[in-house]
Design brief:
4-stranded mixed beta sheet
């Protein structure tokens, strides 16, 4: 078995060190056989801050993007508009260091537990769900 590797990034002014145990490629066929994709071969991937549970963003993966994510520990998605793979943070520096990957019970979506470095949203917001709050009863029960 290969040794875990370490990845280092700065987050909120502190160094984040992620020790990663590599994904066993021998298990890939079993994982891939469980994936249920849409008509374009994609499945939604939800990125969630691993330690707080904060939902950061939703993107798309195909099996190759998922395999790359598992192999590298960096969130890799499929861009429907550009028709290419993109590794979160390669352009912006706002990387997602993957802490966990879970397939849902039906095999039709993926949940990534990540350590988000910088903004998750392309607009610069912390999450892609900061802009338009349609309903929030979590504070005082008053929807207004």
């Amino acid at each position: 078995m290969s040794r875990p590797r370490e990845t280092q990034w700065r987050r909120h002014g502190r160094m984040v060190v992620v020790q990663q145990t590599p994904f066993d490629p021998a298990t890939w066929d079993a994982v891939e056989s469980r994936l249920k994709r849409d008509e374009h071969g994609l499945l939604p991937a939800v990125a969630q801050q691993w330690d707080t549970g904060e939902v950061l963003m939703v993107a798309w993966m195909d099996p190759e993007a998922l395999r790359r994510t598992l192999a590298t520990g960096r969130a890799t998605y499929w861009s429907r508009s550009r028709q290419e793979y993109w590794v979160k943070g390669d352009t912006s520096g706002h990387v997602q260091l993957v802490r966990s990957v879970r397939l849902d019970c039906d095999g039709d979506s993926v949940l990534l537990g990540v350590d988000q470095v910088g903004a998750a949203c392309h607009t610069g917001d912390r999450t892609c769900f900061d802009a338009d709050v349609l309903l929030d009863l979590s504070t005082d029960g008053d929807p207004a």
